[in-house]
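Reproducibility note. Readers wishing to regenerate the assembly model reported in the main text can use the exact inputs given here. Chain order matters: entities are listed in the order in which they were concatenated for prediction.
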Amino acid sequence: MTASSFAARWPSVLLLAAVALLAAFPWLGAAFYTELVTKIMIMAIFALSLDLLVGYTGLVSFGHAAYFGVGAYTLALMSPKAAPASLWVSLPASMLAAGVAALVVGVFVLRTRGIYFIMVTLAFAQMFYFVFHDTKLGGGSDGRYVNFKPSAAIGGFEPFDLGRPVQAYYVVLLILAMVFAFLRLLLRSPFGRALQGIRANESRMRSLGFPVFRYKLAGFVVAGVLAGLAGYLLAAQSGFVNPELLSWHQSGNVLLMVILGGSGTAYGPIIGAFALLLMEELFSSLTRHWQLWLGSAIVALVLFMPGGLSRLHSRLRARFLS
Amino acid sequence: MAALRSSRSARSRSPGRIRRVDLASFLIQLLNALQYGLLLFLVASGLTLIFGIMGIINLAHGSFYMIGAYMAFALSSLTGSLAWAIVLGVIVSVLLGAFLEWALFSHLYRRDHLEQVLLTYGLILIFEELRSIVIGNDVHGVAIPALLDHAIALGPTLTYPVYRLFMSGVCIVLAAGMYWLIQRTRIGMMIRAGASNREMVESLGININLLYRLVFALGVALAAFAGMLAAPVSSVYPGMGTQVLIVCFVVVVIGGIGSVRGALAAALLIGVVDTFGKVFVPEYAGVAVYILMAAILLWRPEGLFRRA
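Running the prediction on these inputs yields the following structure tokens for the assembly.
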């Protein structure tokens, strides 16, 4: 094997190694780290859903936390006080609720473009924030507990128990893999091609006869449904919901993950989620002023390294292989 | 705007006011609406100019409001006078604006919106953390200058604080000044020309970089000034910048990007909707301005005062 053919193959080798590491992780780390990685994988699902909009459709949504929060709150509102909700009922309900929210918001926000779109998505997310923050619906600013993890029991048979961290880990890993595969298939389908066409040249797509608005709306709803899925998983894992799930910081952080990892690249959002949250875990224990360093790093990244980490990786590869 | 809002909602929760809206209390709410709207206009006008002329989305604009309020707190306890604090604060914020434009924003003009969002998001984190290091995370009050610390009677039992009237008056003077600057002066002419055609202005030999720096510094100073003016009524607290930022986005969306006149109309509209929303439907008032925005988006997606 020549050096260059190995180098051309090393991303897939790396991918295989990463998957193997993730699959074996609960047997390596302590319980705390298992739960941390579970949370990171949930955020990776969230970031993947946003990348469908930012990276592939060219829609920079700054309010994606709204659908994440709606998914989380749906579980909290459906959970009885003294018994678990059924996973098979509450999970589809969460995704449906997030999808409906995205549909309603999408009808408004997709009438705008560019800077307007960024501001309007942010404003609508803030509206959802206030709905949960100011009204009694979800317990106001204190939020609400999910006392019991959703139960996966069908009749007497229980395939897995989300109350056990290791089992929850593998369920989330499986869902992450499914979401990843689903998005790959979706982007290869004619529908996904049309979304990417809209990103490249919207007016050409329109003159080719594509109903651009409906395509964008469908993409917006799919992204919302997947964000709702991630929100559901986070609420199930953490056991409580509060309005901060829908805050604009949440929208900003997930956008940061997407851009940090490289938007419009297959693994970018997952890499971004791991990079950001692991750095946060590491540095917030070392310094009280982690936000200052994060902020400075972001500013430096934009000024000196346009395109994010995975674009950097492809640039480096291009340099060393040519 | 939580503190602005909470100070006003505490006011509207006082007995009798919600149940029986008589003329005097209606007038009070109208004055509150005007004051809130005008203050929003000060912040939003800089934002809309920066959008319109430089094509930059600046998430950190709310931070300048926050910085202004904190400067009012720190400098007025240092100098003992809010007036001196404001004078010093305006000078500092003009310098800060010019510096940021030179060091950071001038590199963003030809970039994607995405990268602008990212960089200005990073700036918010930096400003908030610096605020926490320098001043801390407590809520602080700023004293109203003794000269303006009165109330005037608006009926047998109702009074209205003079400082709020003063705030509205200052905002009106500033709005008029901006109108004069943009419509009647040579610099204003360049600003308007820059907003409609950047390349043409450059080729006419106008130093566009200097113009950009000027507009940016002006925007920063306006936002910081609004924060300083609001500090005595709203108090000074972490996160105040981002709240005002999001409402200002709504102002800019409703008014139309780049339109100062639109920002004024939209800010006043939001002032009225938000203030009277607090009186009549307190639980849903937080949502009211966004519903207004949604309605306007359906009707005119480009905003009320759309540029051709």
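We highlight two features of this model. Residues 31 and 129 of chain A are 33 Å apart (CA to CA). Residues 3-321 of chain A form a domain with the ABC transporter involved in vitamin B12 uptake, BtuC fold (CATH 1.10.3470).
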